[in-house]
């Protein structure tokens, strides 16, 4: 039996796609092994969101080739799509595929002739209009499944390379989404995360659906108890949307609402399509209908031209929003984007100082968020045992909870009384 390893660097969408690729190999009779094991085929799904992502991708390619000199190494994903020639020059690469045609990957690998040298199958993604049907059917024994409903991005934020790597927005056929969700429910998943490169754009390229409509479809599926979005943007949060979030009881009360900066001047230079007024309105609407909603976000510090005053504005706005958590990213110039060309880059030590200060705010806000639940009873979906008799799970509003239990709590929804708070966890007593 031939062995194949499929590995993703980067985001959840890449992880989803790598799992789907593994299933394609499995269907053709391959044994699926880990990336650090000897295999006949290695598929590396690369990430190019930062230059560091590129470097990690190159390192991994060299590493797998060392594990088996004769293996076929296929490199797919965002880095392969934006820099196929660069990938072809990395020692050990056999096939370069990019962000489309991955559905044919088994055929391409099997047809590969080592005598012919490196094959480049990357084509122009900017002309792509169809959602590539890659799906996951068989995963079992897990609690939460990611479900890719959308690909591509047409936003062109000035710091981001993704629109060039993924092409324009393409939304998945809602009926196809439904088929996959039903299968996931059949396989025991209780929670699905609707994921994509820019989920907020779902439906904008189709006449027959919208983000709310696809959510309503998923909501009908029996067996699914929780639905999350991987990330949304303030522009989708209208009164109708926020109201629907409260009415659809399976929707988790957690929204990752990308902010990127709390300073309007910086937002404009980032080419983000909202300002702080719109963002505040979105947060207020979500909290009006879902008072216990956890709002988390991403913020970039040290974007070119960000002055000390701009940063203070961003910091003050983040504080006002009372986030449950902030993912802080020091700006990292990405070749091929307008922001990377700017002359007013911020020095690294300034970015580090700003990161520390925002991270300290994030920690304080996370703690304040968790503390509100001391002594309260919450419903937790337990995912796994982290040590014998200790289970980890999440609430609908994404509080991470740990509890002791003599019973196996995996994949069970259990009411739990919160008794203590640490920096990362709420500790609780499961009510069995
Ligand atoms: S919305 Fe902006 S940051 Fe997000 S993928 Fe699109 S261009 Fe990149």
Q: Can you give keywords for this protein?
A:
432 residues; alpha/beta; Rossmann fold; Transcription Regulator spoIIAA; 4 domains; six-stranded parallel β-sheet; five-stranded mixed barrel; 18 strands; 34% helix
Q: How do the strands of the widest beta sheet line up side by side?
A: 2-1-3-4-5-6
Return the average pLDDT rounded to an integer.
94
Question: Could you tell me the radius of gyration in angstroms?
Answer: 22 Å
Output the number of helix runs: 14
- Unreliable sequence segments: none
Helix amount: 25-40%
Q: Helix- and strand-based class? A: alpha/beta
Per CATH, the superfamily of the largest domain is: Methylthiotransferase, N-terminal domain
Write down the overall geometry.
globular
Q: What does the model show?
A:
- This protein has 432 residues and is an alpha/beta fold.
- It folds into four domains: 3-123, 3-Layer(aba) Sandwich (Rossmann fold), CATH 3.40.50.12160; 135-230, Transcription Regulator spoIIAA (2-Layer Sandwich), CATH 3.30.750.210; 263-372, Transcription Regulator spoIIAA (2-Layer Sandwich); 377-430, OB fold (Dihydrolipoamide Acetyltransferase, E2P) (Beta Barrel), CATH 2.40.50.140.
- Helices cover 34% and strands 23% of the residues.
- The protein is built from 14 helices and 18 strands.
- The protein starts with a strand and ends with a strand.
- Bound molecules: iron/sulfur cluster (SF4).
- Iron/sulfur cluster is lined by residues 153, 155-157, 160, 162-163, 197-198.
